[in-house]
Amino acid sequence: MAVPRNALKKWEKVRAFALGLPGAVEEFPWGESVAKVNKKVFVFLGVEDGSYPLGVTVKLKDETAHAHALACPGAEPAGYGLGKAGWVSIPLEQQGAPAAEVLCDWVEDSYRVIAPKRLIAELDGS
Q1: Tens digits of per-residue pLDDT, 92-108?
Q2: Could you tell me which residues come within 8 angstroms of residue 73 by beta carbon, excluding any fewer than 6 positions away?
Q3: How far apart are CA 115 and CA 88, in angstroms?
Q4: Most buried residue, 63, 65, 66, 89, by CB count within 10 Å?
Q5: What angle do CA 107, 35, 5 make, to 5 degrees?
Q6: Which residues of 68-84 are buried (b: 16+ CB within 10 A; e: fewer)?
Q7: Which CATH number fits domain 5-123: 3.10.180.10, 3.90.1150.30, 3.40.50.80, 3.30.470.20?
């Protein structure tokens, strides 16, 4: 099944944003794209080949952001017990999916939870 173009564009923006954060690297454990900082995943980007619905999974500690993310169409706590730790899976192909800017804000929030303080200081330009 072909991935809707607007969902793919959003996904590409989010991926580029995530990989542009200080110290971020892309790896492919389990055959899916993840962005890591300091050897720890801060966003699961999934696969873009259409074999699985396009989406992102982020860790949100802020209760307001977490509730907002869970309110998105089709969003749910991440599987494998990650949901209990604040991880939320957000599908991008559904009507009403969040805008790329909102997704990038969440990716940054997730990065800030996981990245070491020195990289957060770099991100903040201090």
Answers
A1: 999 999 999 999 999 99
A2: 91, 94, 95, 96, 97
A3: 18
A4: 89
A5: 70
A6: bbeebeebebbeeebee
A7: 3.90.1150.30
